[in-house]
Amino acid sequence: MSGVLTLVPTPIDNESQLSVEAKKILLQAVKNEDLILVEEPKAARRRWLRYGLPREAIESFVYYNEHTRQSQIPDLLKLLGQGKNLFLMSDCGLPAFCDPGQMLVDKCHEKGIKVSSTPFCNSVVLAMALSGFSHQRFVFEGFIPVRHKERTLALKRILKSSDISVLMDTPYRLEKLLQELKDLNCSKKVFLAMDLNKAEEILIRGSLTHILKNLKDFKREFILILGPQL
Fold this sequence. Notes:
By secondary structure, the chain is an alpha/beta fold. It folds into 2 domains: 4-117, 3-Layer(aba) Sandwich (Cobalt-precorrin-4 Transmethylase, domain 1), CATH 3.40.1010.10; 123-227, Tetrapyrrole methylase, C-terminal domain (Methyltransferase, Cobalt-precorrin-4 Transmethylase, Domain 2, 2-Layer Sandwich), CATH 3.30.950. Helices cover 37% and strands 21% of the residues. It contains 8 helices and 10 strands. A 5-stranded parallel beta sheet has the order 3-2-4-1-5, with helices on both faces. It has a 5-stranded mixed beta sheet with strand order 6-7-10-8-9, with helices on both faces. Helix 3 (69-81) runs parallel beside helix 4. The longest helix is centred in the first third of the chain and has 13 residues, at 69-81.
């Protein structure tokens, strides 16, 4: 069984503490001898100790950043494929959102490796980070119109755009939304995040056909992201 890549968001300031849940997860990761990926040595050591995490774990840090990612990703994917769990932290904020971790998340999805995250306060931004899609330019479309004519026009406009698009709707309209996109010949990569940060969380990426075929329970809170062309 493959390991899991877990994103670990951290405070953006230099004073706040790590969330209780994230700290608990990292302590267990250290105990399990999982791999901790950090961005820069000095900042990572300082924050790690300020969060009250074990000093002895620092010597096992793996430094993953914009300068090292190209050479490291094949080895990291191999470790994940062998069952090793990886925990990714950036200097501050959410890893993989406008961050070197994006490429690693993208490759994990391509290899069918599970990606998850410790709790984060913004579901839209978290879904973007977990999607692995580029974040250079994206549009938050929000809730799609309900009326048929306006809804169809909105979806056609979105499908013509080259931007990454973030869509929302009520849980009972998810299956309908996916089918509508399929009927409009959507040829984009799709990422669906359901019940984020809950025990029953589901993350699935692929074509619309793949998602419709493999998803069994459609009535969940969700964020749908339309990425680049397949």
